[in-house]
Amino acid sequence: MAAFQATSDAQLQQLGEARNLVLKDPGYWPQVLQGTLPLITSGAIEVRRWGADFLAETFSTPVVDARAKQELALACLDTLLRLSNETETGILKSVVQCSASVYPIVFRHICSNRNDADTWNKMVAIKSKILSLWDVAPIGVRICCIKFVQRVILVQSRGVTDPRLVDRSETSLATVPANHPLLSLPSLDAEAQGLLDRLLSILHEEHSEPTLITATLNNLAPLVKTRPPLAQRIIGAVLAFNPFARMPGTISVQDRLVMISVEKTVRVMLLNIMRNNQQTPFAGRISQHIQRLAQAKAELNDSFSRKRSATSQQDADSKRQKVDRISTTPRATPPPPAPLIDPLQGMQPGPVTFAKLFTLATDPALTSFDGQQLPLDLVLQIVIGSIYNVDQAKLDAAIAMVKARYEAVMANPPARAPGALPLAPSAPQPQTAEAGPPEPPNGMALVKAEAGGEGDEDVVQLQLGEYKLPPPVSLTTQQAQLASLNAMERMFSVIDDFEKTSLISRKSKLGVRRLAASSWDREGWISVLVRTATRGAQDAGVKSESGQAESLPDILRERLYQYIIADFRQRMDIAVAWLNEEWYNDKTRSSSGTPRQPQYQKWMMKVMDAIIPFLEVRDRLFMRTLSELPEIPVELLHKVKLLCLDPDRSSLGIQMLQYLAMFRPPVREQCVDVLEDLWRNRK
């Protein structure tokens, strides 16, 4: 096994030297390829992978002559046919790419050589194998298959009908002579139409990969430009495609980025079609479709940055429906007034007491029940629940009954029994030495019979003593953290209610010695949230869904991160304030010797990774945000470097590097190095 590995490494080294030779002198390319073909199919997997890559590079490079490519294409068909049966993804990708370059060359050769059936059968076998891989192969191989299908459609369809505009070097059905024994024009045209339908169906499948959709759109653009007879079908299918149509209910950042990327591909394709042919009859429909895509993109951004969640909106809708249902329900007519009855009817016979006066029940079991046996908490619950649920008409009738009883008793006081207190005030009596204490005025005394004797009563004196509030209920750690999270959410909701003010119009005094939250405006609440996240107590935390304990500051940091990226263009100031506080807190903790994991680098890169993919050329304010960061690491400059490699946003990235080099001396050297690398290696 070791000897075999050594042999494979030696072969790869020799093949690498041969490749370096042809790159320096392309004249040796045919000889080197002819010499490496026997090694490609009989070597190890690494050698076969190198051979497949070298074949794809051979037919895609412009330094090899077209006549030499035709000779090499005929010589490598057997090798491609054997390599197409491999299962390794890298080999299959290179084989399909090479076949896409070889197919037009072999087709033109067959047009000139009517009897070379062996070569055409090999090419047909390779084509059948690639088409069988289109739906079952890995995603990278399927993208290469889409490119191969585009080449087949280009070759097996008719080009420009105007003879003045025909490109003689182009391969199409126009190059096939009449009555060709191997190439049937109707069969080739029908196969091309079927492959085009299959290619367009990717745009309208229920579960299509975004990468496949992007690859399909990129390969349809050359067909529209070079095959006018197919342009109507292709443009109609693209106009019927809406990347926002199958929007999921819950949109993540990745889903949003994918939909925006696909929308950009569609928009660029349609704009290029209008730019190449301004007189196209589809100009009006294309303009309307681009406007619809822009509107759908704006709605997506609004829905993603909306501060209220869908659940709260559903709750509001349900409440609104309940209110509407209550308002539309016809009110019942009030019951007729009860007939006049004797106010004293239903009262138990005997002396009139307050208990008898307010007792409306006629059941002896209820009237004889002593309510003092019940706990006070239970009595309060019963009373409050009864007040909430009692019928208003019945309550009014009961109050009127008690009032009528009281007025009737006061108008005709009954004879007082021994031991009973009068309800009406009596005339003052002269007191003697033997007389007891005077009776309370207005008869407002409670009569309570002693259990041991008959008719003995004592007056219960009601006095107001010192009242103390009960101590607050002690909260558990989970309850306290839940209350903290609720308070945090309320603070975030308060921030959106304030208008964003500029530095000039602020009422608070600016400067180093100013208070961080001198007034309860938007800046004050932001300062409270940021200071709580950066300098808050490092508690044990709560357990997340994954089972790991998260501290309250980390939860608040995550909430700040989500709040900023939801609408980062309007909340750049919050990001700058937060990251500056994180950097300052890291420095103070490290200088004091407190063991703590630095937070600035972690959250700064996380915020930038979420913002940079959505930046556009018009986002020049981001340059100022970048310059206001307290520390700019090299990793962030590499992110800006990747932004410079995007053709649509390269100007923004270069302006960022230039701005930092001019106004941030500590990172000037790093910015100059990045710009120099772009100038030397990324032309």
From TrEMBL:
Stretches assigned to the Symplekin/Pta1 N-terminal domain: 91-307
Source organism, top-level taxon: Eukaryota
Record localization: Nucleus
Entry GO terms, CC: mRNA cleavage and polyadenylation specificity factor complex
Biased segments, Basic and acidic residues type: 316-325
Low complexity bias spans: 420-433
The keyword Nucleus is assigned to this record: yes
Keywords: mRNA processing, Nucleus
InterPro entries xrefs: ARM-like (IPR011989), Symplekin/Pta1 (IPR021850), Symplekin/Pta1_N (IPR032460)
Major site of localization recorded for this protein: nucleus
BP GO annotations: mRNA processing
Renumbered residue ranges of the record's region Disordered: 301-340, 420-451
Protein name as it appears in the record: Symplekin/Pta1 N-terminal domain-containing protein
Source organism of this protein record: Sphaerosporella brunnea
